[in-house]
Design goal:
7 strands; 3 domains; 411 residues; 19 helices
């Protein structure tokens, strides 16, 4: 297996950028539950608060970065706990964002001001007319968000194929984005309440797609004033749908994120490389869908690492011209699988019962246990070398990016 070439050294400002991303990931993990494995998920809410190991890893990384930033004293005060509970973690996140906010103000001169408005509004009738049963979870999510979460958010958006209505039934998942207000993060008690309400909302994502691999995409109002577009490229708002009725302008101060975009691409190369080295093909439909979805995201990540932010739908033709037909063929194979995906409304009675159960992950259980076999027709489309082909494409994307962008990355 070929080794990745190119070493990137962080500049002083990029140390703060690393702090931003680590803190952002900590917030997202906390609000999504922070469950390290499937067993802990299924034991929610009993297990909630007993799974702090994942947060301790974030704390260790953030402590290291804060020492580099000269925040030694504040860092020692914040991380003075010997044991953590959920209340402590929420308090630490609040304190860390205060530090973040003060440091971010130093770098405002390195940002570009942008104003974004999401013009598309959610209309339940449109989705009911398309397919009332299929889109029922989306409509229920819209009702839930406006009833319980609206006051805590600057915005809540659908994006991806459910927003643009070019979905594939059974394959498309429910992509959402929420922007959390500063005032919620500042008050750790509000943050805890919001967390519980947000975890409850996950049931609608899993009702829509039991094989969904991610929760809500989240960032905070804090990030908007020093904003890296790799969190959520601003062009995507043109294709997104707001679940709120009011049409508010959103203000962003965009910062450079070239190095982070390259790292994201590099991480995907390592994912495919690991699959080949361990000879570890997807074992079930859940894993296979993640593998296929990662391939379909590669053109977007490749263009993003090359300074071109584009909606995923249009990334394929733009990226294709940089590769041979042989290398690109894995994308064509996966596109064919996506188009031929079949939809079945599985275990409807179970899902009706689980709507009211406190653990949203229970909704997924029957499909993951009884409906998780990879259909033979998928292997009829994929070549036997599909794992190696995916790695080859990803590796070529990374190497072409290094050659093209080496002056920018300082390589």
């Amino acid at each position: 297996m070929q080794k990745l070439k190119g070493k990137i050294e962080l500049l002083p400002q990029q140390v703060f950028n690393e702090f931003q991303i680590k803190l952002h990931n900590l917030l997202c993990s906390f609000l999504s539950g922070g469950y390290p494995n499937r067993i802990v998920r299924l034991l929610y809410p009993i297990s909630d608060g007993n799974n702090i190991e994942i947060f301790q890893k974030y704390f260790k990384d953030i402590q290291r970065i804060l020492f580099q930033l000269g925040e030694d004293e504040k860092c020692q005060n914040i991380f003075s706990y010997t044991r953590y509970n959920l209340k402590d973690i929420a308090f630490i996140i609040s304190e860390l964002y205060e530090i973040y906010d003060k440091i971010a103000q130093k770098y405002q001169n390195f940002t570009i001001r942008k104003v974004i408005r999401c013009k598309n509004r959610f209309h339940p009738k449109i989705y009911k007319n398309k397919d009332a049963i299929y889109f029922e979870p989306v409509i229920l999510l819209w009702k839930y968000i406006n009833r319980y979460l609206k006051d805590s958010l600057l915005g809540f958006f659908l994006h991806g194929s459910v927003s643009t209505l070019d979905f594939i039934k059974g394959y498309s998942d429910l992509d959402t984005l929420l922007i959390l207000k500063k005032e919620v993060i500042k008050n750790h008690k509000k943050l805890l309440v919001f967390r519980k309400q947000l975890i409850n909302s996950l049931r609608y994502l899993f009702l829509f797609d039991p094989f969904q691999h991610h929760e809500h995409f989240i960032y905070s109002e804090y990030e908007m004033f020093y904003y890296p577009q790799m969190l959520f490229p601003l062009i995507l708002f043109e294709y997104s749908t707001s679940l709120f009725e009011t049409d508010k302008e959103l203000f962003f101060n965009e910062r450079d994120c070239d190095i982070e975009c390259l790292k994201i691409l590099e991480n995907r190369v390592r994912y495919f490389s690991g699959q080949v080295e361990r000879n570890c093909p997807p074992k079930n439909l859940y894993d296979m869908k993640f593998f296929l979805s990662t391939i379909m995201l590669m053109p977007t990540l490749y263009l993003q690492a090359n300074g071109c932010l584009v909606y995923k739908k249009y990334s394929f033709e733009m990226a294709k011209k940089d590769f041979t037909d042989e290398t690109w063929d894995i994308v064509e194979q996966v596109s064919k699988i996506r188009e031929g995906w079949s939809y079945r409304n599985t275990f409807p009675n179970w899902k009706k019962i689980c709507r009211f159960y406190p653990n949203p992950y229970f909704i997924k259980m029957p499909d993951l246990k009884l409906n998780n076999k990879i259909p033979i027709w998928i292997y009829d489309i994929l070549r036997k070398s599909y794992q190696k082909d995916a790695y080859t494409l990803a590796y070529e994307m990374y190497q072409k990016t290094l050659v093209r962008r080496s002056p920018i990355y300082g390589l």
